[in-house]
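User: Here's a chain of 478 residues. Predict its fold as tokens.
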Amino acid sequence: MNPDQLKTFIGSFWDDQILPSLTEYIRIPNKSPSFDPKWEENGYMEQAVTLMTDWARPHVAAFAGATMDVVRLPGRTPLIFIEIPGTDGGDANGDTVLLYGHLDKQPEMKGWAEGMGPWIPVRKDDKLYGRGGADDGYAIYACFAALLALQEQKVPRARCVIMIEGCEESGSYDLPFYVDHLLERIGDPSLVVCLDSGCGDWDRMWLTTSLRGIAAGTLKVRVLNEGVHSGDASGIVPSSFRITRALLTRLEDEATGEMKLPELFVQIPPQRIAQASEAARVLGEEVYRKFPFAGATKPMVEDLGQMVLNRTWRPQLATVGMAGYPEPVDAGNVLLPYTEAKISVRTPPTLDAKEAVKAMKKALESDPPYGATVEFDAGEGGQSGWHAPPLAPWLEKAVTDASQEAFGQPVAYMGEGGTIPFMGMLGDKFPRTQFVITGVLGPHSNAHGPNEFLHIPTGKKVTVATALMIAAHYERKK
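Assistant: Prediction complete.
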């Protein structure tokens, strides 16, 4: 294989084929079902599926025997399923490479810069701004770019399956049904490539070694059946906000941000501690400078290695939503009847998130202050994280070589603080599978927030690395 020819093909394909379609994808407000309960009625998810499948159809036809289906199970988000036979006309080497991405998006969020917005694609220099381009709309396009680049040079590869789901940002609750439904067609993948993760910088390929889980729910504290005059009731009726704050203290030390519930912790593997230290050395102050701190706000801790471990292997609490309160401009002198808070605890990769939810519910609901009515509703429970199995020697060499060729720098390893439910699901079903989890969400790319962007040069380089790893996967048995 000629690596320069590979890079030239993929660079041109991105410019000519990917970016025009990805720009149109950003315009579609196809929010994940958790944020758009009427997603089916609104039709935006269908628009995104149609855009991607219309774009992919001629590229699917470029591979002999390849097929593409939009699989639909009743009441569930659609899933794009593409099968591309191996270069020997069947399952080359008896293997399958599974490539994964998603097409649903996070909600709008406020704070976009002037002239920008979640559904307004804006190209500035090497960045394409807008919701979903980097998380994770580019995935299906990058998969085809990598496979077509290999085909151009007649590089052999195994059978490839591409799965693009529509429910990832809601916790992938539809995906298990599709995996079971399609199990025979998926086969037994020996390599999974997921393009939905982050990168510490733009200078090298980053391999995700773990993903935290999530234990989220709604905490509701009620002290009155209706609001009353604060001048009449304060000092007699306890504040529901103060009780909520006190209950959250059972989970978290509000002075330091350290979690207090023992059931939320695990022993961190020594290898991951060492990798966190190395990642901190490589990134330096960028570990925290990538975040848009306001004013003189500082990080919770000073040690860079501990920052990396805090966001990858330690539980952390975030209050992500509140109800029961008027906007400040509309707020009268009323002692409010209840406080409702959506809380989210990121759990360590190896912790059973459902057990974490049970521990949280017990801690929050037991012995409520003043006998207030307290309920913690976590719905179906938490979503456990994922810890990568050790890399096989061939894959360790492949990712090292791919990073060096695509980026000119060695590969780096780091856990991610978010959750990709599909990884844990696949790890359970295919325990011998090797995983490459990588992505383009680097410094300031701000997935889920305002001014999210795709760094185009990194997208191209990750695509090159993906092609190289698919080729190395085939060669490993020779």
